[in-house]
């Protein structure tokens, strides 16, 4: 009889410019002058690796975000950046956000296969459909595609990518110098895809990679998003404000897996948390207050307008939210709209208060406390059915990440909740997920 | 009165899998088992940097090339690979081939801006239009675009990319923490492009990079290709078999610059050479013979068929070339067709002989000799008006590159023809080209 190892949690470091808080770049502990400097991100990745974290992750969009006047922006394209980080790290997983709406599956499948090869099996893809008109206008369109059509395209995009990643069997390369045979072409397969959005012949021009294909990550929590995640995703990033909301989302998403022939262990749910860490609770709250005071109201209002799909310019900051549209009529990030609208209504917040509450996490949960208190929060969500791990969003970088690694991780390790050493080499090893079998291989 | 420094030549290392010779992977000095391994390419890049070369370069196509049965293929996507190489090198330029036919300008401009930032100004773009139907079939098409239309699209693509690269002035980032102003938005500019192929709003979401934009490289030698190069390119890779052909091409291309308001120094001509290096001439010839004997005739015939646009399968290897179409009717690589057809006709080669002649360089010049003899060849072309430098195509890797760096480079240095140390940091510094001025800046 074998004993099951104790369940441990997973930690992803979500890295962003000078930090997740929208005023991070103004805070003296941040380094905004370094965000166009590769060494800054390499150091952050090494810090995460020092903490034995599962992975690092970059969000992305394909338009200038927030107009750059009041927010610090490096803007490196994530696959390019993660390739340069791969070269100076050994274990940490590397998750890039890339849009299915503004790319071609052959190019993208190839880039991820390349990153997976050159990182020794550490690539992950956060699949997004791009929800803003600013992005559409950089890609030959006046308006962006309707929400449902974007997900249709995403589904077909992923099917093509999966075919391409399976187009070389793992043992296709025979490398027989004497016979002059490099690859056994019986083990290469066309994609031969002809669908509504794509026609792709294949095979891919990169051999199958260490993980077979990148870890598939998804972060949309709308109905379309959850269904897409249930079908394909192996990890889900989500914004949940309360334990009850987190539990409901977790249960909902896991219950959808069976209809795609998948089990609950096949998908990890990783809610975001922006932890403000202090050696005392008062110190943590003081950091939070400092950051709130550094917020630029015009920027916060513009961001809030974007999330709610309503122009709030000119409304009194100390007044309430105006009448809002229904989620049905939102064609951007539907789930974020609903979360923010409910947060405002539930707590009766003024615009100024809502901007302050959204400053650190843009809708993700924010928690200020000591390392023990932060660990308590993670443990609670992890043991109470709301999380398999967490998306750690340091409000200020690099300090917020090094504080988490140096002070919160050891608490989690002492409690037996987190690894003390890496036990595998690939990103799926870290997440405890199996390597996908090639569809062309029969047992 | 200032004295002009002596004119020195430029060297680019064109890296390919196990080496440029189509049988390189079967030769005992190659390492085909390492071509899906990042460390292999990092070592090659460091070898080139040890030799103080200007740059390394990867060719590319977006379809499986040669079907992989008889040719060793790693297939990493060049921008991904070069980003990982950037992280472990300091000086060497990094030139990636990317197609204008199967990409979107916003994505590509951003990737090159990212690579240029994270390499400290070492990015170069070899602009190709993709000439094969196999590539078109991976991108929703049954047939590929007509040659002239591909160049029209390439021109507009480049215009959009140039607008995006200029969309941030160099001093747009003010980083005023006290005032809460990150960027001076008066120094950000939309692209506002509306053309026949693209509509792109801009601005780019990456600040202007160290070089302003990547070095622009071009390698097509058709009429369309030469005209495109004369208008935009800063370096041209070209295949020329004889000194006379090299001189004619050099003169032709340089003479086209004036009509675009450019001078002869604005564009460097770099013919390819595949040097087989031996400590004696006999040893070099012996290496050439060994490689020829390792060629797989079926593979050579398929490659030749592709270059000539004629199916040669089943024709006797010891017979002559059949009747060939006119260059006008070739819709792939027109200049390579003409070069190969003329080589076969001029020397009355059989198919087998032509395959042997094309084995090491696919139409580029092949030369077997001692380091002194190789240096003599380079010096002759450089001083006789056929080259500003060379595209060095080691027939077998890694040995062909380390032999060149360790034995040919020192001869060139002793003759005062090549640098002994890097004097600048960026790729344009190495090539002696100025950093482009942003169009929005007035003196």
From TrEMBL, chains A, B:
Pfam families per record: Bac_luciferase (PF00296)
Domain of life: Bacteria
NADP recorded as keyword: no
Keyword entries, A-Z: Flavoprotein, FMN, Monooxygenase, Oxidoreductase
SUPFAM superfamilies hit by this protein: Bacterial luciferase-like
InterPro entries assigned: Diverse_substr_monoxygenases, Luciferase-like_dom, Luciferase-like_sf, NTA_MOA
Domain Luciferase-like: 25-386
The keyword Cell membrane is assigned to this record: no
PANTHER family, sorted: ALKANESULFONATE MONOOXYGENASE-RELATED, C2H2 FINGER DOMAIN TRANSCRIPTION FACTOR (EUROFUNG)-RELATED
Family affiliation: Belongs to the NtaA/SnaA/DszA monooxygenase family.
NCBIfam families: FMN_nitrolo (TIGR03860)
Protein name as it appears in the record: LLM class flavin-dependent oxidoreductase
Organism: Streptomyces antimicrobicus
Biological classification of the source: Bacteria, Bacillati, Actinomycetota, Actinomycetes, Kitasatosporales
């Amino acid at each position: 009889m074998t004993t099951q190892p104790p369940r441990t949690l997973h930690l992803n470091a979500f890295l962003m410019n000078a930090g997740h808080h929208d005023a991070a770049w103004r805070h003296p502990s941040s380094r905004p002058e370094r965000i166009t400097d590769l060494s800054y991100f390499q150091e952050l990745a090494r810090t995460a690796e020092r903490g034995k974290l599962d992975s690092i992750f970059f969000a992305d969009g394909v338009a200038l975000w927030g107009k750059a006047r009041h927010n610090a922006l490096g803007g490196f394209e994530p696959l390019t950046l993660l390739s340069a980080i791969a070269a100076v790290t050994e274990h940490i997983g590397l998750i890039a956000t890339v849009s299915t709406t503004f790319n071609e599956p052959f190019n993208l499948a190839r880039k991820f296969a390349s990153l997976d090869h050159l990182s020794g099996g550490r690539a992950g893809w956060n699949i997004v459909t791009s929800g803003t008109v600013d992005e559409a206008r950089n890609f030959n369109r006046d308006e962006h595609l309707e929400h449902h059509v974007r997900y249709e395209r995403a589904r077909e995009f992923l099917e093509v990518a999966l075919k391409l990643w399976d187009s070389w069997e793992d043992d296709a390369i025979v490398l027989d110098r004497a016979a002059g045979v490099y690859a056994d072409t019986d083990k290469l397969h066309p994609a031969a895809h002809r669908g509504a959005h794509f026609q792709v012949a294949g095979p891919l021009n990169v051999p199958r990679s260490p993980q077979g294909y990148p870890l598939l990550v998804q972060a949309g929590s709308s109905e379309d998003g959850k269904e897409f995640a249930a079908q394909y995703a192996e990890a889900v990033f989500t914004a949940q404000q309360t334990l009850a909301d987190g539990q409901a989302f977790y249960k909902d998403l896991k219950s959808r897996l069976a209809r795609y022939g998948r089990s609950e262990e096949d998908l990890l749910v990783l809610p975001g948390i922006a932890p403000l860490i202090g050696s005392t609770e008062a110190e943590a709250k003081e950091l939070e207050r400092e950051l709130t005071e550094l917020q630029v109201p015009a920027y916060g209002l513009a961001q809030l307008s974007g999330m709610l799909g309503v122009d709030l310019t000119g409304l009194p900051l100390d007044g309430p939210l105006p009448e809002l549209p229904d989620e049905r009529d939102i064609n951007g990030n539907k789930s974020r709209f609903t979360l923010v609208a409910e947060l405002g209504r539930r707590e009766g917040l003024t615009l100024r208060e809502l901007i302050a509450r959204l400053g650190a996490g843009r809708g993700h949960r924010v928690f200020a406390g000591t390392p023990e208190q932060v660990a308590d929060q993670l443990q609670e969500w992890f043991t109470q059915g709301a999380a398999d791990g967490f998306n750690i969003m340091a409000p200020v970088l690099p300090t917020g990440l090094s504080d988490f690694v140096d002070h919160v991780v050891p608490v989690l390790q002492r409690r037996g909740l987190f690894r003390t050493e890496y036990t595998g080499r690939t990103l799926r090893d870290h997440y405890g997920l199996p390597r996908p079998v090639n569809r062309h291989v029969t047992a």
